[in-house]
Fold this sequence. Notes:
Layout: E1 10-16, E2 21-28, H1 34-39, E3 44-47, H2 50-63, H3 82-98, E4 104-109, H4 115-126, E5 130-135
Parallel strand pairs: 4-5
Antiparallel strand pairs: 1-2, 2-3
Amino acid sequence: MVGFKTHCKALSVVRRDTDRLRQYVHLGTGNYHPKTARIYTDFSLFTTAPALTEEVAMVFNTLTGLAGYPGLKKLLVAPFDLHQRLIAMIEHERDLAAAGKPGRIIAKLNSLVDQGVIEKLYHASRAGVKIHLIVR
């Protein structure tokens, strides 16, 4: 995408089995770099779940210009919907806590500088949401 830095921590493998094509996806919080892999603790998911493999394929098609961004259910993708969906998720947890239900946010981030997100996290915390941030 022209004008944007692509910072995707996803890998997609398509394999031809005897009966069909099978997609595998790896989603992670870390880079695929051997030096940083020894320094940082990252989370990753390796899956064949169609709900994720299909969305990763759509993201790659969007990034390569083969398709427009269709909107996704599972993945949050900047610059398309990450910010507004993240805010909505924080507000959802805040609303749960305000209604006396348990609200919790756990986030692993490289940095946290977006003023709007920071303010929403403070509001959620004041409403009773338990917030755990893991920031590099």
